[in-house]
Amino acid sequence: MMLQALLNKTKGDRWIWLIIILLSLISVMAVYSATGTLAYKKGEAVEKLLLTKHLIFVLLGIGMIYIAHLLDYRYYAGISKVLMIVTIPLLFYTLIFGTNLNDASRWVKIPVIGLTFQTSDLAKLALITFLARMLTKKQENIKDVKESFIPIMGSVCVVFVLIALANLSTALMLFGVSILLLIIGRISIKQIAIVCAGGFILLMFVFFLGPRRKTYMSRINSFMHPEMQHSDKTFQADQAKIALATGGVFGKGPGNSTQRNFLPHPYSDFIFAIIIEEWGTVGGIVIMILYLVLLYRCIKIVTRAPKAFGALLAAGLSFSLTIQAFANMAVAVGLGPVTGVPLPLVSMGGTSMIFTSVAFGIILSVSRDVEENAKLTSKEEKTNNKIIVGEILAMA
């Protein structure tokens, strides 16, 4: 009875809910296999490591999706202001005092519980919701440089630079999503061209003068020059290619990966390579199809959303999730330089799973509003039809 009551309260696009459940199940199975070596090194059983961390966060993430989708998406307009006020100082704090992992200060430790989270995850959610709000609010004078362009682009540039100094790949993806939102939000092409030029200048500044310039240049050089293959600088990419090559069409079978013993972070950044090794090319294609279907369903929500804020919100979050997913998969199959971007809702990661889940919940909140609006419209049409029929009968 409780489950039935819960299902009755679950609203929004059913296809998106199905994709969430499927990706969560795939995540549990893939992480269970990929963490075998990690558990062995720590002297713990895989089951214990999985059940006490990843599985809990997966369930918590689904819970967050459910809660977020019940909240009217219009409330996120007000929440976005608070998030931006919190995010910018937090990004500054991360750069100066953040926990340094893998030669980058991207993480902040949460007091008491001791967990760390990437502030860029919060920044992505904050900037997208804030941009959707600002673009909606400024529609009447959207072409005005002083009233609209400067305030909107100021927030984008500040967040971009603060993230890029520690995490260039995430910053570039967020900047790309922001440009897409500007196009949808009717910012003029001339202004967008200025934004792109400014973004390129900022990118060059971070790439050549930033604190991680050596890391960025090394990764680009390793990707661009095949003669550097099989060196310590391309170890991750080499091991991922071995996983892809040995996986074949149908894979070695769940739990039979060998590259998880050699590949750094097989449970997060390179989980797609492990999935292909165990489930083959077929498994990889299934994952790609799920994200493409997700994008398609989100575009349908955008086109049917009655309010501009809902459409921009769903568009920004769906673009962010799918671009991140395909960036992760591109790196795993050797189509891009190595980055630290996880596969949304699949890779192991506590707080990143939570922020991803909130994004899914907001999309479903917009979808729920679309459904309710469609029902009201249908009822009004039926009522009008009854009135018309009644009038005709009365005249007869």
TrEMBL record:
A GO MF term: lipid-linked peptidoglycan transporter activity
Keywords assigned by UniProt, alphabetized: Cell cycle, Cell division, Cell shape, Glycosyltransferase, Membrane, Peptidoglycan synthesis, Transferase, Transmembrane, Transmembrane helix
A GO term from the CC aspect: cell division site
Bilayer topology: Multi-pass membrane protein
Domain of life, source organism: Bacteria
Enzyme class: transferase
Catalysed reactions, semicolon-separated: [GlcNAc-(1->4)-Mur2Ac(oyl-L-Ala-gamma-D-Glu-L-Lys-D-Ala-D-Ala)](n)-di-trans,octa-cis-undecaprenyl diphosphate + beta-D-GlcNAc-(1->4)-Mur2Ac(oyl-L-Ala-gamma-D-Glu-L-Lys-D-Ala-D-Ala)-di-trans,octa-cis-undecaprenyl diphosphate = [GlcNAc-(1->4)-Mur2Ac(oyl-L-Ala-gamma-D-Glu-L-Lys-D-Ala-D-Ala)](n+1)-di-trans,octa-cis-undecaprenyl diphosphate + di-trans,octa-cis-undecaprenyl diphosphate + H(+)
Intracellular or extracellular location(s): Membrane
Any Pfam family: FTSW_RODA_SPOVE
Record-annotated membrane-spanning stretches: 15-38, 50-69, 75-98, 110-132, 152-185, 192-210, 270-296, 308-333, 345-366
Main location: membrane
Enzyme Commission designation: 2.4.99.28
Cross-referenced InterPro entries: FtsW/RodA (IPR001182)
Annotated GO biological process: cell division; peptidoglycan biosynthetic process; regulation of cell shape
Family to which the UniProt record says this protein belongs: Belongs to the SEDS family. FtsW subfamily.
Protein name (record): Probable peptidoglycan glycosyltransferase FtsW
Organism the protein comes from: Pedobacter zeae
Classification lineage: Bacteria, Pseudomonadati, Bacteroidota, Sphingobacteriia, Sphingobacteriales
